[in-house]
């Protein structure tokens, strides 16, 4: 016959009475077919339960699984990274993107046919990471990036030229860190003849720009050209 006993008072793990005890089915204990034993509460505040045992955590050797530790570590690393503020604008043959990170180091830019992956660090060691799935296919072999003290600019060649992009991303969802560069956005119909020259000129200016000055806007290119003509005359 089963005999109910009080909790065993011990500081070591115990498996005999600090949990919920259920009666044997069918009245084998003499209490009837529906009888159950009462719930016995844990009388030791510093004890925890593992399975059917109560004891101190150090005795039960409770620890997080290694897989959980790795997952938490990866999540922490991902949370430490930030998205770089990104500006973009459309041209007949190219899509321009500017990742706004000052004094960037460890810059990595991967341009593929359908996406771009950007990462870097700033002067404070903060890591930035952006991954963008493009609205349409691009020609990764005819794309490039240039770095200045204020930002990293990428020129991405469209696979289908003279086709306007209504947005930069494949999905019709606008990330909070992505904005249109309205200073350089314009109606480009009939403007494709001068675009390649602008790209080359812009790349040269980026190489020469001071680390304390922002990269020039596309509208400034015409001003530079006019100034050069006036000087030469």
TrEMBL record:
One of its GO terms (cellular component) is cytosol. GO terms for molecular function: Hsp90 protein binding; protein-folding chaperone binding. Keywords: Chaperone, Cytoplasm. The keyword Cytoplasm applies. CDD domains: p23. Residues 81-169 form the CS domain. One of its GO terms (biological process) is chaperone-mediated protein complex assembly. InterPro entries: CS_dom, HSP20-like_chaperone, p23-like. Residues 208-233 are annotated as: Disordered. Belongs to the p23/wos2 family. This is CS domain-containing protein. It comes from Lipotes vexillifer. The gene is PTGES3L.
């Amino acid at each position: 016959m089963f005999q109910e006993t009080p909790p065993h008072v011990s500081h070591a793990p115990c498996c005999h009475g600090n949990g919920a005890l259920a009666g044997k089915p069918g009245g084998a204990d003499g209490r009837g077919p529906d009888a159950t034993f009462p719930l016995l509460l844990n009388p030791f505040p510093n004890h925890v339960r593992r399975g059917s045992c109560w004891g101190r955590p150090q005795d039960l050797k409770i620890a997080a699984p290694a897989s959980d530790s790795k997952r938490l570590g990866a999540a922490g690393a991902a949370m430490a990274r930030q998205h770089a503020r990104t500006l973009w604008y459309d041209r007949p043959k190219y899509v321009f993107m500017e990742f706004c990170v000052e004094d960037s180091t460890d810059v990595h830019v991967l341009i593929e046919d359908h996406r771009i992956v950007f990462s870097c660090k700033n002067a404070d060691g903060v890591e930035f990471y952006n991954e963008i799935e493009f609205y349409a296919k691009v020609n990764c072999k005819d794309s490039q990036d240039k770095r200045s003290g204020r930002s990293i600019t990428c020129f991405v060649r469209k696979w289908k030229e003279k086709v306007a992009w209504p947005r930069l991303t494949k999905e019709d969802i606008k990330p909070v860190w992505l904005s249109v560069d309205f200073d350089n956005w314009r109606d480009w119909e009939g403007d494709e003849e001068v675009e390649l020259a602008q790209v080359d000129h812009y790349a040269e200016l980026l190489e020469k720009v001071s680390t304390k000055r922002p990269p020039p806007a596309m509208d400034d290119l015409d001003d530079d050209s006019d100034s050069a003509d006036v000087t030469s005359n």
